[in-house]
Design a protein that fits this description.
2 copies of one chain form a homodimer. By secondary structure, chain A is α/β, with parallel strands linked by helices. Helix content of chain A is about 45%, strand content about 15%. The first copy, chain A, folds into 2 domains: about 80 residues, Winged helix-like DNA-binding domain superfamily/Winged helix DNA-binding domain (Arc Repressor Mutant, subunit A, Orthogonal Bundle), CATH 1.10.10.10; about 110 residues, Rossmann fold (3-Layer(aba) Sandwich), CATH 3.40.50.720. Chain A has 10 helices and 9 strands. In chain A, the strands form 2 sheets. The first copy, chain A, has a 7-stranded mixed beta sheet with strand order 5-6-4-3-7-8-9, sandwiched between helices. The longest helix of chain A is centred in the N-terminal third of the chain and has 19 residues. The interface between A and B is large, with 63 and 63 residues.
């Protein structure tokens, strides 16, 4: 876990860490105990200096002429990301994107467990999807407090995203992963990560046209 | 459509353009014909200078003291993004993430129509999902050529992503939207946009811990 701002590291480095985990777990599975930065650099298609800087933010250091101990580096990255302790999350909005994410099995591998979904559509409430119960929005506050859930995945339509985001902040949620196609305003104590697929589609469209 | 590199614009500007479209369509729906940059700046929570720079890349100019013509700006942005002509796309990998995206109705609004899904699991092939047929991988090349499809959404597991990406490049696909949790290497003529949810989860994890 990052102890202070200086150790927080740059966002691109943080975003690459899961790639290191994938490579390192592969090496571990193959019985390899040591990984050099040049080996990681080749596997990941990154400059060696980038590899060194990326790993530096986790506080793990390699041995000169040897490299990093694979198991230690895996632990160090997971510890830095907080992925060694599973975090519970709520999903809010059980529409098409919400169900898509409930059906995605990648989160659990990274220590994120969706424990409940919420919706205000009575037709959806009461059932479950992929083993996750769909509950009415009115239960959100009491459940967040009882289960100590601090992360919410927001998959409501754009026009209700702001209202729901304000509700989430009010329920003690400290991190919102926003898949709604709109920007949301929340108190400073809440971290928001926007996952805007239309932004990505815009970027891809222009890159294809201009062969970037 | 961007005519040359100078007009391509910066990626963050491009990625914000869909937000402008959403606000402008709202204004158009409300019968508003003119939008000032200060109005757009307030709606989007962006500095006015950012709004001006963002719109500049589309080649649309406003009138001093008046603003932008809403209909003209919508057309200009859609034209720049190539969203006024619907593009057909293939989805490759009809697993949990693939089905999630097939069920997501946001793409069509942005001129992206998934016309076929491909998978090499015989249990999935032959059926359809949300009206989209699921076909065997062996049909990909002939269909890409016959239907002139140039965009592929890649939702296969990480360990087969590289092999499939190479196949896609070989089939004349020029843009890959990569949801597979791995980096892929393709010829320079192919644009790749990585949509790595584990990278986003890493970023969110650290931001929550350090309240960024």
């Amino acid at each position: 876990m990052p102890k202070n701002a200086a150790k927080v590291g740059k966002i691109p480095s943080i975003r690459r860490l899961p790639q290191y985990l994938r490579v390192l777990r592969g090496l571990e599975g193959a019985g390899q105990e040591v990984a050099s930065s040049s080996m990681l650099s080749t596997s990941l298609g990154l400059e060696q200096i980038v590899v060194k800087k990326d790993i530096e933010i986790t506080g793990i250091t390699g041995k000169t002429g040897v490299g990093y101990m694979v198991a230690e580096l895996i632990d160090g990255i997971e510890d830095y990301l907080g992925w060694n302790n599973s975090s519970d999350a709520f999903l809010v909005g059980a529409g098409s994107m919400g169900k898509a994410l409930l059906g995605y099995d990648g989160f659990r591998r990274h220590g994120l467990q969706i424990v409940a979904a919420f919706d205000n559509d009575e037709g959806k409430v009461g059932g479950e999807y992929k083993g996750v119960p769909v509950l009415p929005m009115s239960k959100l506050k009491s459940l967040a407090s009882r289960l100590h859930v601090h992360i919410a995945i927001l998959t409501v339509p754009g026009d209700s995203a702001q209202e729901v985001a304000s509700q989430l902040a009010d329920c003690g949620i400290s991190g919102i992963w926003n898949f709604a196609p709109t920007t949301i305003q929340v108190p400073e104590s809440v971290s928001v990560l926007n996952e805007d697929l239309s932004a990505s589609l815009a970027e891809l469209s222009v890159r294809i046209q201009s062969n970037m």
